[in-house]
Amino acid sequence: MSLLRVERLSKSFGAVRAVDGVSFEVGAGELYGLLGPNGAGKTTTIAMIAGLLRPDSGEVFIDGRPLGADPQRARRILGVVPQELALYEELSARENLEFWGRLGGLSSRDARRRATELLEALSLADRAREPVKTYSGGMKRRVNLACALLHRPRLLLLDEPTVGIDPQARLGILEFIRHLRHEGTAILYTTHYLEEAEALCQRIGILDHGHLLVEGTLARLRERVGGDRLFVLEGDLRGARPEAWPGFADRFRVIQLTEDHMVTAARDARDPAECLRDLLNLPVRVENVTVKRPSLSDVFLQLTGRELRE
Amino acid sequence: MNLLCLLVAKDLRRALRNPLPWVIHLAIPLAITALLGLIFGSGGSEGRGLGRVRFALVDEDDSALSRFLRGALLQGQVGGYWEPVVLDRTSALARLEANQLSAVLILPPHFTRDYLTGRTPVRLELIKNPAQSLQPAVLEELLGVVVTGLNAVARNLRSEFPAWRQALESGADYRRVADLIVRTGEKLDTLRPYLDPPRVWYTREVRSAGGGWSGVSGTVSGVNLFGYLLVGLSTMFLLFPANTARSDLHRELACGTFERYHTLHDRLWPFLVAKGVFVGAMVLLSAVILFGRGGLVFGVAWQRPWVMALLVVGYAVFAAGFSALFAAFVPDARAADALGNLVVMALGLAGGCAFPPQSLPVWVRDHVTPMLPTAWLAQTLREMEFGSGSPAWDLVLLRLVGLGLALLGLAAWRFRRCFAEGGVS
Q1: CB contacts, 8 Å: B259 with chain A
Q2: Is there a contact between A187 and A197 (Cβ–Cβ < 8 Å)?
Q3: Is residue A46 part of a domain?
Q4: Minimal Cα–Cα distance from B354 to chain A, Å?
Q5: Quick check: is A112 in a domain?
Q6: Which domain holds residue A263?
Q7: Which candidate, B246, B203, B239, places its Cα nearest to that of B378?
Q8: Is residue A154 part of a domain?
Q9: pLDDT tens-digit readout, B279-318
Q10: Of chain B residues 221-260, which have a CB less than 8 A from chain A?
Q11: A200/B7 Cα distance (integer angstroms)
Q12: If residue A287 lies in a helix (H) or strand (E), which one and from where to where?
């Protein structure tokens, strides 16, 4: 049974439909990525799952039971890492952790012990007694993450937990999140960083303008675009009309076409060299052709016709 | 209870780590009471406001008239307000130098003769103590009244003066003096509108045990002007720490800690009540400083300190509810910061905190002031401490606590609604 089930969740703010009929599930020990540009509806979705925001329609099930049936029970299962740094900057990391642990229902002794564990695990132990306001952005992000873990939540909601930090700090956090997944925590991870979703998530849902466009494993999403490889043609493509090229539509699918480049995928599993020959014989001036593995960016591009800018 | 303690402890710890905003708000009333104390001096003798104005009378004239004036100053009800001592010029100036007197009033030689002959202008000399401000000023004002009276008498009774001079110079011819008094008395009737009734006076009434009202005669303890002001200003200033706590609630909203709390607890009221307890603690601390120190500075002996403390607790509950509700309805921190101080000032002014409610515009006094908790507290304390009535303080306490709790409940409802609709941060 999935730990989190979201069914046709919708939310509007005035005329803006922020989330529109979103459904997905996250199982125990699974890391599910919700990928989308800023304003796609990721944070709104997380807020509804966390019980902060009331959905207009749809339902959230936590561990098989509707969230509204027993909100306090759901809150004991959930751990929420908000996008903003929800910390008391005057207090030290240890004080923050112990406070949120106590608030999560731990005894004073358990909160202290658990805080020590997390401070060690997140490499914060040596500065644990200093006020959070003296920390770097990466350190604050780690404290922000740790504050949600004191009460050992079975389901963790991470809302862009690596925004605004350097690559090294980001790698540390991603490694820690992998470790949590291995321990059996179900994780819903929202991000607009493609490489994070590719590197971390077992299943990915792509959200845009409040709609869940597609979901699945990375391999399945790649298959939707063009299997293992894509061909990128660079040259003068002004006025190019691929639908008019004889036999092209039977063998290739156009992912993106601009004045100076075209991304296309073969419709069948033909030999790449043969595909290249076909592409070089097209009635346009081609200066360069490259072959690459499809990325989530290509998936997003195919689904929306837009780049997912970081 | 455990949750409440945890939340309050967190706020206290944060306040200790970042004490500046609180220190400023606690220091402002301290500074203001100290400043007022420096300007006006302490409460004076016997802890009763200005106390009696102590001054020296140097009688260099030593005539029958000056002796009469001297005697008049030392008698009757005036003795309750000023304390003249008759000294020679050197001793008087020495005591003035030693700050033992507020002023020295010198009746110059030939004062009586010059006044009665009217040949040369009479000059009274007042030497004020520069180390004091209010008492010498009061004495100067009173001397102005005396001079006006002497001028009025001189203008209206000039024709009688030669006879008076002869009578005073010829010794104690009581028959002649009696005739002069009768004649002068008849003329003084023309001055009655100027002299009687006095231009300024007050009457005082007390409610008897039976509930009726009756006038009081005899000596009454003076109204402590600074105590009266202190109560009003303190009532207003106590809302400023509450406003700082409101600002803290806004910070919790802005940085997401309130929301994070909500991810762990469905009920919002413990968070708000804890914040309220914190606000209450700060308001009480401020009240101790304001009323305690202010009382010392102005020599106010609070008549019913425990009732006063209970009322301040009630006011702290109101302040907590007020600050929570304000944060709930003005979610923008900058707007709330700007608006908060204005609202506090408006509550204070319209509540008659800065000046007596009688001087407010009639419509405000009749329709707005009675609705304001600032007025409830200030007027009850004033009546209790400086009036002669026995106000229903228990009802006021209930109203303050009830209103505070209602405002907290309303704030919790509003925050829940805002969270659910996504309009908090």
Answers
A1: 52, 82, 86
A2: no
A3: yes
A4: 36
A5: yes
A6: 229-292
A7: B239
A8: yes
A9: 888 888 888 888 887 777 777 778 888 889 999 999 999 9
A10: 255-257, 259-260
A11: 36
A12: strand A285-292
